[in-house]
Amino acid sequence: MFFSLSHLLLQVIAGVLGIGMASIYATNLLWLEQFVAISSRMYGAFSIACSIGIDVYGPLIGQFIVSNPMFFMWTVLATVMICIGIFVAAIFVAKTAQAQSNTKNASD
User: Fold this and answer.
1) Main-chain dihedrals φ then ψ at residue 38, nearest 5 degrees
2) Of 1, 32, 45, 75, which shows the fewest CB atoms inside 10 Å?
3) What sign has the CA pseudo-torsion 93, 96, 102, 107?
4) What pTM was estimated for this model as a whole?
């Protein structure tokens, strides 16, 4: 009973994770656009990088899921922590760029 439920639960959680990551992807691009002029090549590179990043999870988790079932959860946790770190770094970069822009505009 539990294993049939856990398979369904895994599918539901994977779908919810995908929905959450989709909103982060779009929000990042819109937020970054406020500070940097983004070209179509940059959009393309960002899309390809995100697509390649997703393809890593399947083989990586597939190698360890049998011997260590919690590997998937630890991988998701590590991904969330890395995303938080990137967001914090992006905030500092944006504030620095905004401060430099304000200083430049004030001197003009």
Assistant:
1) -100, 125
2) 1
3) negative
4) 0.57
